[in-house]
Write a structure and sequence with these properties.
The chain is of the alpha+beta class. It has a single domain, classed as Recoverin, domain 1 (Orthogonal Bundle), CATH 1.10.238. It has helices at residues 18-26, 38-47, 53-64, 81-87; strands at residues 7-8, 14-17, 90-93. The protein has a three-stranded mixed β-sheet. The longest helix is centred in the middle third of the chain and has 12 residues, at 53-64. The protein is globular and about 35 Å long. It starts with 6 loop residues before the first strand and ends with a strand. The mean pLDDT is 86.
Length: 95
């Protein structure tokens, strides 16, 4: 699943809003449970051209999983912005 956006920043990162990022990320929710698992986040990293997807996805889930359930819930997706900018080759805009 490619990131569809019209804009790129000077550093080559795709630019999207938080809502666009959330929608794109939910496309990786293979079991449609409304949460992003470590494996689903690893798929997003791979699609974005990232390396070491399993390790990075584990770090990403651990860093934003506020309730400790091992998944990224809807309320935690906004906490994933910094991780996404570092590992998913995107720049997130808050509009």
């Amino acid at each position: 699943m490619a990131i569809k956006t019209r804009y790129y920043s000077v550093d080559g990162k795709r630019v999207m809003t938080v809502d666009e990022f959330t929608s794109w990320l939910k496309g990786f929710d293979e079991d449609n449970d409304g949460r992003i698992s470590k494996d689903e986040l690893a798929d997003a990293i791979r699609v974005s051209g990232g390396w070491f997807a399993n390790r990075k996805s584990k770090q990403g889930v651990q860093s934003v999983d506020a309730n400790g359930n091992g998944f990224i819930d809807d309320s935690e997706i906004k906490n994933l912005v910094q991780f996404a900018e570092q590992h998913l080759n995107v720049r997130i805009l808050f509009l």
